[in-house]
Amino acid sequence: MYPSRPTAHQPPDRTALQLQCERLETGIQQLKAAVTSHTVIDQAIGALTTPGLIPPDELHQALTR
Questions:
Q1: Helix-, strand-, coil-residue percentages of the chain, each rounded to 5
Q2: Is pTM beyond 0.85 here?
Q3: CA angle (19, 25, 26) in 5-degree steps
Q4: Ranges of the chain with pLDDT below 50
């Protein structure tokens, strides 16, 4: 049921931690870019829908192509 001798906890491999950190930082950068892009698209939709000529959903489709 239990091991005959307790084993010491092995710290994670430094290379594995570095790779995980790089992946997480890449994900953070992608999320920041997405938020910025979304903000710019929302601002453009707001500016272009002010006259009320084009519905917001059509503008969103046109701006995200």
A1: 70, 0, 30
A2: no
A3: 90
A4: none
